[in-house]
Description:
Helices cover 64% and strands 1% of the residues. The protein is an all-alpha fold. Helix 4 packs antiparallel against helix 8 and helix 7 (252-286) packs antiparallel against helix 8. The chain is globular and about 60 Å long. 54% of the residues are buried.
Amino acid sequence: MSSYPPQYADAGHPATPSDDSNSDTIEMANLEDIVVTPNPHKRQEYHTPYAQDDHGVEESYSDDDDDEGGRALLGSSDRVRGRERLPGPLGVWPQVKDIVIETGPTLLLTTVGLLFTGELLNNVSHWKAMERIEELIIIIPVVLNLKGNLEMNLSARLGTAANMGDLDKPSTRRSLILGNLTLLQVQATAVSFIAAVVAFTLGRILPRSASEPSAPMSSNETLADATNLLFSLAARQAKRPHHLPEKDPGGVTEFIMTAASAMSAACLSSIILGSFMCGLIVLCRKYGRDPDNIAPPIAGCLGDLVTLCLLGAVSTIYITFVQTPLPLIMICVLAAAAVGWTVVTRRNPLVKELLWEGWTPLFAAMIISSGTGIVLDMYVTKYEGFALLAVVISGLPGSVGSIFISRLSTALHAAAIKLSSLPTSSDDFTQKPPSHQPSSKLVMITLLCVTFPVEIIFLGVLRAFGWLKFPILFVIFSVVFFCIAVVVSLVIAKYLTELLWRRKLDPDMYALPIHSALVDLVGQLLLVACFEIVSRLGLSIKASR
């Protein structure tokens, strides 16, 4: 069981939820008086939230109204460091304005990034290395699934640390960032090697079918085929224009090449993207923006894009040395480096406990994603434009949910610190404190409203560029089902975060992978329902040729 909360326990004061009264009290019902979003203009004393001793908390908190307990803070303008208090409540509109400014452009850019990732995937899949070693094609969705979740977990952890004020003190900031980067190297090495094993196993058991040369694909077909590859755990080879070479009977060469490429790409991606995300979160803190609203979607989107670019580049280099010991040497070097990073991470008291946490949801998410791949595989050829629309109806709700999870997790950590600092008995705290913050329902409604125009813009772009031609009735149904997907994503985010917290598991480590996989699956099923309804009404969607 995870030692939680919080994730960065002080070495001398390990904070754990062993106190049942404390852990049961810190629920969504008691977040209305916790303010944690950055306010860099306030220069009050720095608080280290992970060095607090647990105290008993009056049981009257556990009887609070459920709705009032979902008070996750809506905007960055009214949340401040640690346990700082506001002089008075703010209106809803300024908070809504801030969250729209922070999340709207972020979600729009990440949606565009998903499309670019799909286009890049198709191009990479036709490179020499990918055509020669089919396991490199199979490993793409596996390694992207695992690696993207690592980056989102990193952004969630650092977002919580930033909002709690842990990145304000230079020494603590340096220790947290370096510790998380070394941890990310260890995780990236491990998951990329496991992805190589999975890809090699699938390559051995999946039937080989060399397709005949096909005509060049249009831009839409290219994007749809690429998106299909991105989601599916099995290699789709129907549109690969070259016959596959004979396999090495033992498969040793293919496995070494695949493992070396995946591990090198994942480690390089962790250095580049991990450093970028750390810098982004520090900048958000510096300029008074809430990293919980910005970092998780960017981490998921750029994680796919950067890892895919590096995987294509590294495999292209290694393929020229495939018959030499170089790939095997690189595996040994990276494995030895991972051991060294493990030692360094264990010596960092702020992150050493994280070495053993968060592995189960990563692989559970990979299993759930296989169901998404099956759904996509069944319907991508049945309905034109299915894979293209799947990018948004799965990706965008998942991004919104990741934002909500990060915000709720931050609020829960803040509540843990606030309640642990209360005296064991005081008349001042026997009654529920006054409510100053909007409820989590308002947060959910705001996030839903932010995603709505992004979906409309996306459909408009598809129509304007001629990638898809669809009747107005389809637009109505797709928007309705998209809104359902967003609502489902937010509901899953809320209850999954609460469940993990009650089980003393850190949502920053456990929630995002499972949530992302579930929302992908739900989004695919809702899109299937949308296409089925429209087709039964006699309408059809045409993709450009």
